[in-house]
Amino acid sequence: MEAWTAEAVILDRRAHGESSAIVDFFTRDHGRYGGLVRGGNARRLKPALQPGNMVQASWRARLSEHLGTATIDPGRAYAAEVLTDQVLLAGLSAMCALLKIVPERQAYPRLFDTVMVLLEALENRQVWLPLFVRFELALLEEVGFGLDLTTCAATGTRDDLTHVSPRSGRAVSREAAVPYAERMFVLPAFLLSADASADADDVLQGLSLTGHFLERRVYGADTSGLPAARAQFVEILLTKGVPT
Q1: How many whole angstroms separate alpha carbon 200 and alpha carbon 81?
Q2: How far, in Å, CA of 78 to CA of 234, rounded?
Q3: 228 contacts 96 by C-beta, under 8 angstroms
Q4: HSE on the CB side for 43, CA within 13 Å?
Q5: How many C-alpha atoms does 190 have within 13 Å on its Cβ side?
Q6: In this model, does residue 202 exceed pLDDT 90?
C-alpha cells in the first residue's frame, strides 16, 4: 500500500460518474498527483476543489503506479477570494493550467514555495502581477529551460542588461543590443532586482518574454501550445489594462 498526506494546491477537477471527481493537485514533497475523490462532484466538496484552492490531501493506492484515491479536507479558498476580480481570477486559472505541464510524481519544492508566495500575494494586485511573471521564470527553470539573465551574452558584462535574445534566452546589455534591439525582448528591471518597481508595460513585457520561451521550449510542437487559460489571462490584461 502506498499512502501520504500533504498540503496541496488544486489544479483541476473533472467529474467522474454522478458524484465523484478526478482531481489533479500539486504538493511540495510529492509533486503533481491525480486521484479519485469520492463525492468530489457533490455539493459539499465541489466548492473546495476549484483550481487555486488549498486543501489537505490524503492519497493512497494499492500500487504506486495506480491512479489512487484521495480524501480532501478543505483549506483556504483562494479562488473564492478573487471571484469578483476578473484579472486575478484569470491569473489564478493560468497558474494552475501552467503547473499541469510538470511531470507527475516528481517533487518540485522550490516551485511549490514560489506558488505559495504567489497565492499569499493575491490581496495586492500591484505585487501579484510582477510575481506571476517571476513564477513563469521559475517554472521555466524547474523544468530545465531556465533563462540566463546574469551576464550579457555578447560581452560578459553584468551591468546595464536591457534585452534578452529570443534564440538563446540570454541577457544582452544595452550597448550590445543596439543593432538587434527590435528583434529582442525587453528585459524589465524588476526581473533583475527585487527592489525595482514594475508598471503596466513592465508586466506585459515580462509576460511576452516568458510566454515566448514557455511556448518554444516547454510546450513546443508536441502540444497545442500554451494553455488557453494563460492566453485568456494575457488577453484580459491587454483589453482591460494592467490594474494598478
Answers
A1: 23
A2: 20
A3: no
A4: 0
A5: 23
A6: yes
Residue 97 near residue 227 (C-beta atoms within 8 A): yes
Q: What are the residues whose beta carbons fall under 8 Å from the beta carbon of 85, sequence distance 6 or more?
A: 125
pLDDT, tens only, 77-93 = 999 999 999 999 999 99
For the record, the C-alpha cell of 50 comes out as 476549484
Q: Which CATH superfamily is domain 2-80 in?
A: Nucleic acid-binding proteins (2.40.50.140)
Question: pTM (2 decimals)?
Answer: 0.94
Q: What is the dihedral of CA 47, 51, 52, 54, to 10 degrees?
A: 50
Which segments of the chain belong to CATH 2.40.50.140? 2-80
Any idea what the Cα angle at residue 64 is, between residues 63 and 67, rounded to 5°? 90
Query: What is the distance, to the nearest Å, from the Cα of residue 240 to the centroid of all Cα atoms in its chain?
Result: 21
Are 161 and 176 contacting, i.e. CB atoms less than 8 angstroms apart? Answer: no
**Identity of residue 178:** V
User: Is a pLDDT exceeding 80 seen at residue 46?
Assistant: yes
Task: Tell me the β-bridge partners of 15.
Answer: 21
* Residues 3 and 58 sit within 8 Å (Cβ to Cβ): yes
